Amino acid sequence: MTGDVDTSRLLGLDALRDALLETWQGVRDVVAGYGPNVLLALGLTLLYALLFWGVSKVAFALLGRLVHVDAHPIARRVLRTVLRLTFGLLVLLSVTALFPALGQWSGAVFRVYLLLLLLYVGWGVIQRFLHVQTEQWELDASLRLLVGNVARVVWVLLGVYLVSAQFGINLLPILGGLGVVGLAVGFAAQDILANLISGVTLLLDRPFRIGDWIRTEAHEGQVTRLTLRTTRIRTRDNEHVSIPNKEVAGAVVENLSKGGTLRLNVPVPLAYHDHVERARTLLLGVLPDFPEVLPDPAPAVLVQELEESRVRLLLRFWIGADHVAGSPVIRMRVLEAAKEAMQAAGLDVPFPRMRVQLGGVPLERTPPGRGEER
């Protein structure tokens, strides 16, 4: 006995069709119930955007006439922030008023608006206070950066906690859970933590400051910024290099700027048959042509070493702190001028030579008139 088989029911097509029809009906009900309010909210948002644009133009024009030129950028930034917060408040209040389910959050939104204004003004006061205190204590740029970053992080965390509290969200259990997760992440990010600790160490120990010229094992340049993770320098070739703080903290760092003036040493070779005093007079006579070389401390020419084939002289002179960046070029120019001066005066610049003498071994000589044996 055979019967007809309903293939659509067997494949589940009827159930799929019913589900799609039910979903479509739900969408139609939502659009019918909330569609006009959504369109109204979009229209109000557009209206508020046009109002914000017009008020900003008028406010900035009045600000340019009423505020002094020096304080104009700060006042402009404050006014723009206040207008943006107000625009966001109007949009959120309109949305919560149009949708009854969100009406309970109207008070919280207004409190958050006032709280953000208070946090913004408070941060301005804190920045001014930190600026005055760091100037009074004569802290360098690196420590100012550390203090500013720590204060910013604490202020942002306080703001997040206060804003979440307005919506009834308690962050303390979340922070406790994040502490456990942070412990696990800490083991997986040991290099990052090492750089952070090394960055704090460098900021407190201060082996160099922003703007100093330093030399490490692999790099030489001017310190442009010191963050909690990297030390950033600009090399003499205008290359910007970021070095992990743990490598800087664990390496030998030469600070070329900390002492102010910098002494350069230029080795100059001299033949044994030439007089050192004559060479000294010639080399010292070259330095006045270079304005970067300081007359005090006085330059000097000393005998550094007596080598096998020549005398190594050392021309020593000082340059000011403003010329530390160009010290390699100054050294090369002085070396070139020294070579030209010695050559013009007839002094030899000998090359390294080696004399090899074989003792106890007679040299084989070909007798006269005999050719090579074949």
From TrEMBL:
<dbReference type="Pfam" id="PF21088">
    <property type="entry name" value="MS_channel_1st"/>
</dbReference>
<dbReference type="GO" id="GO:0005886">
    <property type="term" value="C:plasma membrane"/>
</dbReference>
<dbReference type="InterPro" id="IPR049142">
    <property type="entry name" value="MS_channel_1st"/>
</dbReference>
<dbReference type="InterPro" id="IPR023408">
    <property type="entry name" value="MscS_beta-dom_sf"/>
</dbReference>
<feature type="domain" description="Mechanosensitive ion channel transmembrane helices 2/3">
    <location>
        <begin position="150"/>
        <end position="190"/>
    </location>
</feature>
<feature type="transmembrane region" description="Helical">
    <location>
        <begin position="108"/>
        <end position="130"/>
    </location>
</feature>
<feature type="domain" description="Mechanosensitive ion channel MscS">
    <location>
        <begin position="191"/>
        <end position="258"/>
    </location>
</feature>
<keyword id="KW-1133">Transmembrane helix</keyword>
<dbReference type="InterPro" id="IPR045275">
    <property type="entry name" value="MscS_archaea/bacteria_type"/>
</dbReference>
<dbReference type="InterPro" id="IPR011014">
    <property type="entry name" value="MscS_channel_TM-2"/>
</dbReference>
<protein>
    <recommendedName>
        <fullName>Mechanosensitive ion channel family protein</fullName>
    </recommendedName>
</protein>
<dbReference type="InterPro" id="IPR006685">
    <property type="entry name" value="MscS_channel_2nd"/>
</dbReference>
<feature type="transmembrane region" description="Helical">
    <location>
        <begin position="82"/>
        <end position="102"/>
    </location>
</feature>
<keyword id="KW-0472">Membrane</keyword>
<dbReference type="InterPro" id="IPR010920">
    <property type="entry name" value="LSM_dom_sf"/>
</dbReference>
<dbReference type="Pfam" id="PF00924">
    <property type="entry name" value="MS_channel_2nd"/>
</dbReference>
<dbReference type="GO" id="GO:0008381">
    <property type="term" value="F:mechanosensitive monoatomic ion channel activity"/>
</dbReference>
<comment type="similarity">
    <text>Belongs to the MscS (TC 1.A.23) family.</text>
</comment>
<dbReference type="InterPro" id="IPR011066">
    <property type="entry name" value="MscS_channel_C_sf"/>
</dbReference>
<keyword id="KW-0812">Transmembrane</keyword>
<feature type="transmembrane region" description="Helical">
    <location>
        <begin position="169"/>
        <end position="189"/>
    </location>
</feature>
<keyword id="KW-1003">Cell membrane</keyword>
<feature type="transmembrane region" description="Helical">
    <location>
        <begin position="38"/>
        <end position="62"/>
    </location>
</feature>
